[in-house]
Write a structure and sequence with these properties.
heterodimer; A: mainly alpha; Four Helix Bundle (Hemerythrin (Met), subunit A); 7 helices; 76% helix; B: mainly alpha; Helix Hairpins; 3 helices; elongated
């Protein structure tokens, strides 16, 4: 059962990613990427990471992708804009082969870890409470720094998007 | 049917990451390049969570949380820059933006 679920969600994730990279229209690509993110969320849930699962749906599939789709729609690109500069077939095949080879290499390296995850885990593992204790305990300073980064990003975005400063 | 080991998850993470690399290298549309970067960050998140599960500690989940926050900041800033570029140059093709090169 776990294997069936894993292969289903992994397949959806890979197909969505490939569609995002290859579709000409960025709006279709964005919707394909939403599919990838939702299936990754399901995989997080299978890894007992419920907090990350919730965040993945809320932040990625919800906030970030909505922002991307909104921007695409606001820009209202016409056909002329979407025309891709033709890339030579040789270059495409070459770089595709390099990426595929690197991926295979990584998979070979990872196969040394090959083992089933331990069956026994804490009841608190991955729960909101457990991760919250980590975040406000050992990771308190990085947590505060992240909030500062987000504040700076908000100010920067507002400044950039304003027509007249 | 073979049991699902952590190498399955890590392999999927590697595949997704290199699909993202391919997108950054090959697409000339700035929006698609931004989305490919998001895909790469997501693939790394999957590795973090997988190792976390294997080691039985939640540090990977916290790291994933930080990556997500940075990805959100990056997406916001990237799209703001994109809107600026489109306003000034009316293009979203990376090849047309040669101001720094010329």
């Amino acid at each position: 059962m776990t294997a069936v679920l894993f292969y289903f969600f992994a397949g959806v994730a890979v197909i969505g990613a490939l569609a995002m990279v290859s579709l000409r229209n960025p709006l279709s690509g964005a919707f394909a990427l939403v599919g990838t993110m939702v299936s990754l969320a399901a995989l997080f849930a299978m890894l007992n990471a419920e907090f990350v699962f919730i965040l993945q749906i809320l932040v990625y599939a919800g906030a970030i992708m909505v922002l991307v789709i909104f921007t695409i729609m606001l820009l209202n690109l016409d056909k002329q804009e979407l025309k891709e500069v033709p890339v030579s077939r040789m270059r495409l095949l070459g770089m595709g082969a390099v990426c595929a080879l690197l991926a295979v290499g990584f998979i070979r390296v990872f196969s040394h870890f090959g083992s089933e995850p331990p069956a026994f885990i804490d009841a608190e593992f991955g729960s909101i409470e457990g991760v919250g204790r980590m975040m406000l305990g050992p990771y308190l300073y990085p947590f505060e720094v992240i909030s500062l980064v987000l504040l700076v990003a908000i100010v920067g975005v507002v400044l950039l998007a304003k027509r007249v400063v | 049917m073979t049991p699902i080991t952590i190498e399955h998850y890590l392999g999927l993470s590697a595949i997704l990451f290199f699909i993202g690399v391919f997108g950054v290298l090959f697409r000339r549309n700035l929006i698609v390049i931004l989305m490919s970067i998001e895909l790469m960050l997501n693939a790394v998140n999957l590795s973090f969570v997988t190792f976390s599960r294997q080691l039985g500690t939640m540090d990977g989940h916290v790291a994933t949380f930080f990556v997500m926050a940075l990805a959100a900041a990056e997406a916001g800033l990237g799209l703001a820059i994109l809107v600026m570029v489109f306003r000034n140059r009316t293009t979203v093709q990376a090849d047309d933006l040669t101001l720094m090169r010329d």
